[in-house]
Structures are given as structure tokens and as C-alpha cells.
Specification:
alpha+beta, 2 domains, eight-stranded antiparallel β-sheet, eight-stranded mixed β-sheet, 6 helices, 20 strands, signal
Length: 323
């Protein structure tokens, strides 16, 4: 943070000198130049891709409606406060996270896609009947960092904290820039002058690898990477980064793998296990994700927006999307 502050100060001296050497500058010109220099300093984040954090948290789920022997419990006409709860069913998760700001972490939305099918609940009874969940409530807690709360959509998850020690730690990490695109084709266009890298985990260690986008692989907001015989496929929550020639790093997408379980969510599990399943597909981020970040930050910590908005980009890496 001190280094960034020093760079900004030196840049501002350069701005002042440049105006002094030429025509007198208006107040608006000086302000625009200062803002541009500050934004550029905020976006310089070489090394961000390797500074991921592992965030562990726990999903606690209560089944509130279920089917047993073909009968729905409780029925649709029962009052809301009369709904029966079964559980809790708990499972521990772990996801890669990156610092978006000193009080913010960004993770993949797949962190919350922890099961592709409805949770199958089996509770032996005297008649050995089984129950099937059809509706549930869940909460997220037991963070490995002091997180205040979370928000997520289909693509990204945000955690925020007001803890001073956590904020100090995050302030010293390179912050990710976020690159959304209106179509995955935009990433192919950007690949002419930029490189792409993934950060994937194998045997408990991270491996950062440069990869090429695979031509003719676009399906919706998905694309694939070229894979040689020794290339590593990505796993759930692995990020895809675009890196510019100057070293600026942009979070551009995530692996579409899901978090699966060696053991299904079961009542009063003692051992909670998970694994990140592999996938050849990566999904890109979109304008709605940028707006989701804006909405969440302004609702929860509006004072942070003046910095975070300078790290959000759409279709290009030169100018932030939000003014």
C-alpha cells in the first residue's frame, strides 16, 4: 500500500510538471489527469494471479419440504410457520478467492453450486422409508476469514469484512482487475496481444500455466482452452486470467466444474469432504456481473466503490467501465 501511495505521489508530480511546461490547465483538466493517474496506480497488480487465498466455509441446510412415500410434508395449505424442518445437513467447502479491495474478496459463483442434483436424504425409520428434499433453506458461515457476509449470482461470489486485521492483510495483496465481455469472442480478439493463464491446484499446490484459447469452442458464455498431452485441466473455482504485456492481470472467467462430495450431505456428518471436479469448460464474466459488484458494494460498503470501480472493465483493458 505504501508503494502504491508513493507511485501515485510521483505520478502527480509528473502531472503538475507537465501542465506547468505547457499552457495553463483548467481545474477540470488537472482533476481528470489526477484521476487517471490514481486509477492507473490502482490497476497495476502484477502477481495477483498467484496471490489467491483458500477460503473455507460451511453450508448449513435445512429441508423444509420433502416427499415421503409419495406424500408432500408439509402440504401446500399448511401455514408457513408450521413448516417442518429436517436437518441440519452440513458440508464444508473450500474455494479460491482473490482480493478485490482491502475489505472484499471475489470468488467463483460455482462455490455455491455445490450439488448438481437435489440433495438426496436417507433417514432409516422403522419401515425403512426414504425422504427426498424438494425445498430447503441454507446459510453460509464458519468462514476461515472474519467475513461479515456474502452475496452471489450465477458467476461470482463476494465476501466482505470489516475486520481491521483482515483489511490490513488484504491491503498488502495485489488486487484483481475484473474483465467482463459481451461475448467470449471478445477474449479471442484480445488474445492477439495478451496472454491467458490459469491457476489450478494439484496435490495441494497451485500451478500457474499459460494457456491458449481453443478456436471454435464457444458455446453461449463458455469456451475451452487448448490442451496438450502435459497440460492440466482446470477444476472447480479455478480462475482464468488475461495478462497484458505490461503485466496487468485481469480476472476473466472461471472453470465451470462443480464442487462434489466424496460423501453426500448427511445428517450429523462427522467428516465433511469435498472435491473440485474437473471441467474443460470456462465461463466468461459479463456486464451483469459488473453491475452485481457495483450494487453489492454500494449497498454494503459504499465508501469502497471509488476504488473498486477503477478495477472493473468491459470488452477492453484500457478504460474502466464505470465512470
Amino acid at each position: 500500500m505504501k508503494k502504491t501511495f508513493a507511485l501515485v505521489c510521483l505520478s502527480l508530480l509528473g502531472v503538475t510538471a507537465a501542465f506547468a511546461a505547457g499552457k495553463p490547465a483548467s481545474k477540470a483538466d488537472v482533476s481528470a489527469a489526477v484521476n487517471a493517474k490514481v486509477a492507473n496506480a490502482l490497476q497495476n497488480n502484477n502477481g495477483a494471479i498467484k496471490n489467491n487465498l483458500r477460503v473455507d466455509f460451511r453450508i448449513t441446510e435445512y429441508v423444509t419440504r420433502y416427499v415421503e412415500d409419495g406424500v408432500v410434508f408439509p402440504s401446500e395449505d399448511e401455514p408457513q410457520n408450521g413448516r417442518i424442518q429436517k436437518g441440519p445437513y452440513e458440508a464444508d467447502l473450500a474455494c479460491k478467492a482473490y482480493a478485490l479491495d482491502s475489505n472484499w474478496l471475489i470468488l467463483s459463483g460455482t462455490c455455491m453450486r455445490y450439488s448438481p442434483d437435489p440433495v438426496q436424504v436417507y433417514e432409516p425409520t422403522y419401515y425403512e422409508r426414504d425422504g427426498r428434499e424438494i425445498d430447503s433453506d441454507f446459510s453460509v458461515g464458519n468462514y476461515s476469514i472474519p467475513a461479515k457476509n456474502y452475496a452471489y449470482n450465477d458467476d461470482i461470489m463476494l465476501l466482505w469484512t470489516g475486520d481491521a486485521n483482515t483489511a490490513k492483510f488484504l491491503s498488502e495483496l495485489p488486487k484483481v482487475n475484473v474483465l467482463a465481455v459481451s461475448s467470449p469472442n471478445k477474449l479471442f480478439a484480445l488474445s492477439d496481444v495478451n496472454t491467458f493463464k490459469i491457476n489450478t491446484a494439484r496435490l495441494g499446490t497451485n500451478a500457474i500455466r499459460e494457456r491458449k484459447l481453443k478456436t471454435n469452442s464457444i458455446k453461449g458464455n463458455m469456451l475451452q482452452l487448448e490442451e496438450g498431452a502435459t497440460d492440466l485441466s482446470g477444476t472447480a473455482t479455478d480462475p482464468l486470467f488475461l495478462v497484458t504485456p505490461s503485466g496487468r492481470e485481469f480476472l476473466a472467467g472461471y472453470n465451470d466444474g462443480i464442487l462434489g462430495y466424496a460423501l453426500q450431505i448427511t445428517f450429523n456428518d462427522i467428516v465433511h469432504t469435498f472435491d473440485g471436479r474437473t471441467s474443460k469448460d470456462y465461463f466468461t464474466l459479463s456486464e451483469k456481473d459488473l453491475n452485481f459488484i457495483k450494487k453489492t458494494v454500494l449497498e454494503q460498503r459504499p465508501g469502497d466503490w471509488k476504488r473498486i470501480k477503477n478495477r472493473l472493465f468491459l470488452d477492453q483493458t484500457a478504460t474502466p467501465y464505470f465512470k
